[in-house]
Sequence to fold (363 residues):
Amino acid sequence: MTTHDTLVVVPAYNEAGAVGDVVRDLLAVGLDCVVIDDGSSDATAAVARAAGAKVLQLPVNLGVGGALRCGFRFAVDRGYRRVVQCDADGQHPPTEIRRLLEVQDSSGAHLVIGSRFVEGAHEYEVGRARRLIMRVLSGIVRRSGGVRINDTTSGFRCIAQPLLGEFAASYPVHFLGDTFEAALVAARGGYRIVETPIHIRPRQAGEASAKPLAAIRFILRAVIATTAGLDFRIRPLSELPQP
Amino acid sequence: MKQELLIIAGGVILGVLVLAVARRRLLTVRYTVGWVLLAAVVIVLALLTPLIEPIANWFGMTATGVLLFLATGTLLLICIQLSITASGLTAQQRDLTEAIALLRERIDELEVRGPEAPGS
Fold:
């Protein structure tokens, strides 16, 4: 399996403690990777560079969505066919990236979502409130996008052309925008989406960016989410120029 | 009559304040013009209060009520306009930030590669 058509994009915000190992793991299995330092105040960029990664350094913090779009643009510029987005905190082991890529190869899907809930995935403990919200989000994607996705907020996904090009042009930064809304907009645009079970590891270092208070914003955003596509649009698959 | 004088005074203060801020180059012409126009409108409306009176009464309002209504509406529109501007600026800032990161990486790459024949 060729992997030099694949770029692993690692958005990192103050992850100096973990990003080095993540990069070394990726390079060890022969994956190209780029770390997007999202305006970190620690040594994230230096650590990632020392580990051998290409680093894109955002001068100010844009949020995960901004970091990802920057990574997508880089991937498109350099002619990569697909991108795997992967957390910098070590939750997503390279073996699971292989699995995402295999699923993309065999299915030809434009978006492969690594799911923590699908049967076969490792136990992923979440609170009851969060679980309920996840179910609501799944329901919205199923009804409005016509695709069954259990783990709409998973940040572990593979995005292939031509969807990659569309996301490079336009990708939301707001809360849930880069996960749930991106999946919903892709589904509505007629892009093929596949979900596959993955195992995630506990965080190796750093702090989760989702604070308890975020649960409230989560619910608010989930309500607003029905307006998805209001300020974030991509061209539907059927309207893309044929290659 | 006292009320009209107060409103006129308010309009004059607004105009002077805006011009003073603009002189210190804290406001661009684009925004200065808008605010000065607004100050002018406030003064003109205050002078026209006797004319507004019958129209206001027809709507079951006092002239003061109409002026207050117009003022609130105008401020609302200005706020929306500023939100639109801020949204545009945010999007631009994001584009520029990403472009800077991409260019910086490109420079690093070129520096590592060292001096080479141009175009190679």
